[in-house]
Amino acid sequence: MKRILLYPSITNLQDPAGDTYLRFLRKMIFSMSLVRDDIYWYCLIPRYRDEYEDKTRLMKKMLRFANTKHIEIVTPAPPASKGNVDYQELKKVRWQDYAIDSVFLNLPQQATDLQTYLADHSNLSPSFFGFTHFQDYPNVMQCPSLFRMNTVGILDMDVCYINTQSQKDQAIEQAGRTFNVNVIRKLNKIIKVFPTPVLPVKTEDASIFDHDPLRIVVFNHRPDQEKSFPMFCAAIEELWMKRKDFRVWVPFYAKRRVPFEWMITDIPKETKQEYYYGLGRCCVGVSPKQTGGNWTVSTADGLLSGLPYILYDDQAYKQLNPGADIYKNRRQLNKLISFYLDNSEY
């Protein structure tokens, strides 16, 4: 099990749901859980006083997953908290209870302080990694002391990702005015460029579906109207006991009902464009036995979005896609789902 500590850096306390770093962390934890089940996240959650006291609850809600644990520490409200590591608050945490392998952060200057603190007050020696986008803020690049502080922090990290090659070149060129050639060589090795610009400044322009199809099985029918939905759930429960490297999206699952452990319901679907786009980026869809309605329409929605379907052995479905994979029982369904999950090129 890989255990990673997430250090907080919250700037938008008025609207935590709109904070770019929180949104990124939520997407990262969610996406990683789809491909790996051996990662556990320790999330340091800022606990504010006075008018911001209720914001802690909202932040914990955004980062609430089965593989996360929240550790609250008292933190002053931004901008006082930005970039500062409060040693007195960290001393209140029983670090001997946490076997931390790595620390993830997005403010490099925090790496030096955290590394020093953990070395002096615990037996932990985690690796440090993360990303930085301080090149997007001219005041950091134009202020020698701020830039120097960020650069020293990067030197204390194992890997620091950056958005583009041009930003890396700019950082290396500016660092060359202060540091010697050996430091620059080390800095060049530590800074890595994202394969694709997955962290734009305006994160609302990005989507977790913008890359390879995720390991998500889709049941885009109406569970409250579909009598065969319990059979589908039973099949997924059996598969979940064998493997946990996938999730199931049920777009029309009733909000008042408690979702299953393997289920996700918060993928955007408010507009037809979002709904069809989400379908097209998933792995495979499942069409149930028709006992309560005509589900060929919802199946057609997925097929037209480019989503392959595993169809129940029914003549109505065969008219939609005569060459589709079909099933008659739970064993056959799980065998086909596993095949699709393991053979993305199929």
What does this structure look like?
Helix content is 38%, strand content 16%. The chain is α/β, with parallel strands linked by helices and 346 residues long. It folds into 2 domains: 2-205, Glycogen Phosphorylase B (Rossmann fold, 3-Layer(aba) Sandwich); 216-342, Glycogen Phosphorylase B (Rossmann fold, 3-Layer(aba) Sandwich), CATH 3.40.50.2000. The chain has a 7-stranded parallel beta sheet, with helices on both faces. The chain has a 6-stranded parallel beta sheet with strand order 10-9-8-11-12-13, sandwiched between helices. Strand 1, helix 1 and strand 2 (39-47) form a beta-alpha-beta unit. It is elongated, with a radius of gyration of 24 Å. 25% of the residues are buried.
Task: Describe the structure in brief.
The protein has 346 residues and is of the alpha/beta class. The chain is built from 13 helices and 13 strands. It folds into two domains: 204 residues, 3-Layer(aba) Sandwich (Rossmann fold), CATH 3.40.50.2000; 127 residues, 3-Layer(aba) Sandwich (Rossmann fold), CATH 3.40.50.
